[in-house]
Amino acid sequence: MPRSRLPSPQLPNLRRPNPRRKPSPSKLRSRHPRRPRRLRPGPPRTAPRKRPRKPLRRPPRLRVR
User: What is the structure's pLDDT at 26?
Assistant: First the structure.
């Protein structure tokens, strides 16, 4: 390895990018190749139906006479 390629000790490690920076989508694609999803046998799962919440019962307003 040529000496120019070695990072000098007074410089921070230049090989590692800023870990807080969001990786570009092209880099993400190369790191995580798309794997085909395993097909589950049987009908597709659907989310359970949400029942609507019962409205809160308010006590009747007292009439002023």
Answer: 72
Contact 14, 7 (CB under 8 A): yes
Gap between the Cα atoms of 42 and 19, Å rounded:
42
CA-to-CA dists, residue 22 to 14, 19, 28, angstroms = 17, 8, 10
- With residue 26 as reference, give the H or E element that holds it: helix 25-31
Q: Which helix (H) or strand (E) covers residue 20, if one does?
A: none
Per-10-residue mean pLDDT for the chain, 65 residues long? 59 63 70 68 78 79 76
